[in-house]
């Protein structure tokens, strides 16, 4: 039981002392990506071998003859999911990638016993071929600034003392013993911490509004719904460093005068739910949640609420309705959540990453936070990098970094030597950015000006083979299905927009359709009740703005320039390349290809059923798709 600040400091010191006895620490990534890749089997094999040889108790590894322990432990996500399962060996920081259970023996024999590095398990740069031993030197990590993710991959998320030993709960102790609730709000305000859930609203203003509300009962709610396709930042924080989220919420509770907190986490994140539940249990057992925390008179407890996986439930008022047991539908504002949120009481609602930023701001001060990022968007942002990119994974970068740095320096560029075409930022609420935005600083305001938004931080990279009309159709299909149906512009508008986009990709679109699509997009944006409808048009509007020629090609020429839209695909034979061998006409199931031997053959596009058999059969690459 940690009864006061002194106890907390002693617990941290004891953990650090214990670490000194540890010669080597083997951290095996237990994030969702690595677990899916078999990392828990790797963990079991290494642990078994270490135990079988008695290495976990005493082993002579130190050059000076000291006997040191080896600790084998699961960890949170390192972010480099592409290279998983990942094993990190401290203190040297040796970083092994794509580790299989069969590698366990070599890791124990060669690295743990002899202290040597296994070359084949090191990360190898796909272009330069250079091998990297430590994580810190790898291009994927070099431009990152890991604050909220700093413990992910470094500590065992299921052990509260690992968090405490790394200064965890020290910010809580500081606010409870040295600061007033008003002072806490002031520091968050001064740091200009803006909500990481997408909107970028200043957290300090929100916290102070709840603080000023005159109510006996107030709530703190953490939004861990993360419904955007392609996003997994919040999941990694909840899985990899759950106590950081709890600490941020506890500090918010103290600052706002709330005694109860809820974490709303989607049920599709079972590992995050499990780790959060374990963290809450441990924090309660050790007196960091519950009554009279650290003997300061402050009481606060947290409940975990599993969401049912509807995108709209991430919207603040729908989320509180869902926690109350009602259907998750947004409501009109005012009253705002800060005045009347959960059960009609003043409620402080923030995103997972927003809360995770709080402990370090308290410990290091507002100036430290303002020293990163841009003046109006300070700090860092976690992004989930996916799509046509060499290094997919989770990254944390200073706000204001450019797309070019993210895509080429961190992401390693586009695979297969293909050209970059666009990036969809912020999921269905965001928009598409293009080559011309390569040097745009990624911050709240610059993105808004470009018609997009950071959203929760999903970055889906697309290469030259992507059809931007199809991309707009994909996102419209998503938002239309996720619309709660409460208000007409969103319910009907998204449906009509989807119908138009479907007409265009199937080759039946008209010029009037494009005009109507734009008109509807603006109506839905302006007339919808909540953010889902208000932002649903963003992928359409940005693709119309930046890739208008692709819409025109689909409508006027009945062509899909990227060759994606099946209905618009057509085949033709290049007479220059065709040798008249007749192989294609023999495989065509509908006799669409005719010609004379040793003369160029032709395809009847009316008859062609677009099976593609002729393309793969032609030995001279004479059949063209387009
Ligand atoms: C349709 C919709 C879905 C949303 N989904 C999320 C979500 O998954 N996570 C989140 O933090 N915020 C989400 N938001 C934003 C929240 O309404 C709210 O602004 C945010 O949780 C506040 O926290 P922040 O200020 O720390 O960003 C969503 C908003 C809308 C309109
Ligand atoms: S905008 Fe869409 S999701 Fe939001 S309340 Fe209206 S119908 Fe529901
Ligand atoms: S795509 Fe199929 S149907 Fe069309 S011409 Fe080639 S082989 Fe015939």
Automatic annotation (TrEMBL):
Q: Which GO terms describe its molecular function?
A: 4 iron, 4 sulfur cluster binding; FMN binding; hydrogen dehydrogenase (NADP+) activity; metal ion binding; NADH dehydrogenase (ubiquinone) activity
Record-annotated membrane-spanning stretches: none
4Fe-4S ferredoxin-type domain location, by residue? Answer: 569-598, 599-626
Q: What broad class of enzyme is this?
A: oxidoreductase
Q: Which UniProt keywords apply?
A: 4Fe-4S, Iron, Iron-sulfur, Metal-binding, Oxidoreductase
Record CDD domains? TRX_Fd_family
A Pfam family annotated for this UniProt entry: NADH_4Fe-4S
Q: Does the keyword Iron apply?
A: yes
Iron as a keyword? yes
What EC numbers are recorded for this enzyme?
A: 1.12.1.3
Q: Tell me which PANTHER family the record gives.
A: NADH-QUINONE OXIDOREDUCTASE SUBUNIT F
The family annotation for this protein states: Belongs to the complex I 51 kDa subunit family.
Recorded protein name is NADP-reducing hydrogenase subunit HndC
Q: What lineage is on file? A: Bacteria, Bacillati, Bacillota, Clostridia, Koleobacterales
